[in-house]
């Protein structure tokens, strides 16, 4: 999994909730993922750029620009790139049907896997009652969420200094709060119901920052997660199999494994000079 190995090739890759323009965006890890994969289709499933945050304060480091350039480079090299805007980049919804540098903007779309299954692909915010019916509450929740993410950033800087891998405080808190768990369950059930209503085999979405792949009422619910908390992507292999990649965990494991291999090799390396 290091830079010397050829990228893993997938039929399709789905990513969402990158939130470019915010300090919580894990752009470095996303760029690392891009370096280690190639694909035929790339779906950007909403909240790629955080317009809510950028209206209040401008934040755009070079790594965020690198992410945009890498996506455009994928499109130039023949990758089909489909951008489905979310609620944080909802202004892009005014351009559905338009091509930007080879990137196609769509409100939602149907993806057919290699084994013939059909999936509705959408961001999912239309199934979030808070966003839809109480936008002021969504903005208040967004402020609290950003505060946790700032704390998460400092925490992971400390963890990195002591040799530990990435860990998401916000994901941990979400998993422990009963109301959050109920919201997630309600959201997943509603999105799966929409897939059944449209007569497809399943749904692929984002929005709630929780990667998941399971059957709900006969429809396959696939959430690709995010690149703020979990750093996950949904990938389709060439036989149609869908898989969630937990990139932060995979990279942490890879780095620790390389360190272990170097440690095991040290006696062989040091012995000649010691002699």
Account of the 3D structure:
With 275 residues, this protein is α/β, with parallel strands linked by helices. The protein has one domain (8-274): Purple Acid Phosphatase, chain A, domain 2 (4-Layer Sandwich). It is built from eight helices and twelve strands. It has helices spanning 27-35, 51-56, 62-76, 129-133, 135-161, 169-176, 178-197, 247-274, and strands at 8-15, 37-44, 80-83, 99-100, 103-105, 109-112, 118-121, 202-205, 212-216, 219-223, 232-236, 242-246. The strands form two sheets. It has a seven-stranded mixed beta sheet with strand order 4-5-3-2-1-11-12. Strand 1 (8-15), helix 1 and strand 2 form a beta-alpha-beta unit. Helix 1 (27-35) packs parallel to helix 3 (62-76). The model is unreliable at 130-142 and 255-275 (pLDDT under 50).
Q: Specify the CATH class.
A: Alpha Beta
Radius of gyration: 20 Å
Provide the spatial order of strands within the biggest beta sheet: 4-5-3-2-1-11-12
The tally of helices reads 8
Low-confidence stretches: 130-142, 255-275
Any guess at the CATH architecture? 4-Layer Sandwich
Structural class: alpha/beta
What percentage of amino acids are in beta strands?
Answer: 15-25%
CATH homologous superfamily name? Metallo-dependent phosphatases
N- to C-terminal separation?
34 Å
C-alpha geometry: globular
- Fill in the CATH topology: Purple Acid Phosphatase, chain A, domain 2
Q: In which range does the helix fraction lie?
A: 40-55%
Mean pLDDT: 81
What letter string, H or E per element, gives the SSE order?
Answer: EHEHHEEEEEHHHHEEEEEH
Number of domains: 1
Biggest sheet features: 7 strands, mixed
How many strand segments? Answer: 12
């Amino acid at each position: 999994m290091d830079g010397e190995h050829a990228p893993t090739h997938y039929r399709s890759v789905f990513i969402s909730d990158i939130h470019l323009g915010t300090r919580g965006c894990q752009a470095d890890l996303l760029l690392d993922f891009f370096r280690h994969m190639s694909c035929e289709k790339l779906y950007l499933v909403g909240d790629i750029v955080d317009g809510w945050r950028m209206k209040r304060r401008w934040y755009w480091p070079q790594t965020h620009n690198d992410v945009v350039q890498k996506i455009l480079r994928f499109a130039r090299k023949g990758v089909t790139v489909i951008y489905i805007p979310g609620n944080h980049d909802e202004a892009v919804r005014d351009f559905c049907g338009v091509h930007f540098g080879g990137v196609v903007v769509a409100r939602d779309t149907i993806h057919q896997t290699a084994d013939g299954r059909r999936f509705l692909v959408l961001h999912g915010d239309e199934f979030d009652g808070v966003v839809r019916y109480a936008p002021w509450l969504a903005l208040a929740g967004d402020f609290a969420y950003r505060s946790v993410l700032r704390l998460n950033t400092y925490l992971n800087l400390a963890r990195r200094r002591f040799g530990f891998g990435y860990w998401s405080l916000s994901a941990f808190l979400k998993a422990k709060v009963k109301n959050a768990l109920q919201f997630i369950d309600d959201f997943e059930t509603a999105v799966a119901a929409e897939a059944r209503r449209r007569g497809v085999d399943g749904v692929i979405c984002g929005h709630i920052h929780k990667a998941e792949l399971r059957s709900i009422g006969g429809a396959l619910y696939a959430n690709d997660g995010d690149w703020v908390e979990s750093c996950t992507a949904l990938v389709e292999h060439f036989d149609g199999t869908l898989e969630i990649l937990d990139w932060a965990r995979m990279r942490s494991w890879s780095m620790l494994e390389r360190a272990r291999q170097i440690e095991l090799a040290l006696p062989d390396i040091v012995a000649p000079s010691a002699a």
